[in-house]
Design brief:
139 residues, 42% helix, two-stranded parallel sheet, alpha+beta, 4 strands, Nucleotidyltransferase, domain 5, single chain, two-stranded antiparallel sheet
Length: 139
């Protein structure tokens, strides 16, 4: 019996920023996870903050290589009046509330024990879950 799988290289990448204390999220889905996609996500977070009249964003990120590139550092400097990025401890995913509040729920609802017919179906299911997240889980 042949079981179709997406394979290791067929995946999507989701950047999720959890806003505190509301627990609302700003998210983006990309095919790749590089500094360009991260900078686009940061732009979306800043646009969201401006729309909602937030004065400052302090973002906690892990030590992924794309968080520390020259281009990201330049973006940080250009937006230092509104955006601060702080790094979490190395190899400490439990200190990141996004892991427990968003990522585990997302994986449970979309990925774990589920077989999607295509990468586009996985993307659709992910977008659908994240689109409903703020209405279901945010306080």
């Amino acid at each position: 019996m042949i079981i179709p799988t997406l394979g290791y290289t067929k995946r999507i990448n989701v950047f999720v920023t959890l806003l505190w204390p509301s627990r609302k999220i700003v998210w983006n889905v990309f095919r790749r996870r590089r500094n360009g996609e991260f900078r686009r996500h940061l732009s979306h977070v800043l646009a969201h903050a401006r729309r909602h009249k937030l004065k400052k964003i302090v973002m906690f990120v892990d030590h992924a290589s794309y968080h520390k590139t020259k281009e990201v550092n330049k973006f940080r400097r250009e937006h230092r009046d509104m955006l601060r990025i702080k790094f979490l401890g190395k190899k400490d995913p439990n200190s990141n509330p996004t892991e427990c509040l968003v990522n585990k729920r997302l994986n449970s609802a979309v990925s774990i024990n589920r077989c999607h017919a295509s990468i586009d179906e996985l993307t659709r299911a992910t977008r659908e879950f994240l689109g409903r997240y703020n209405n279901i889980y945010a306080t």
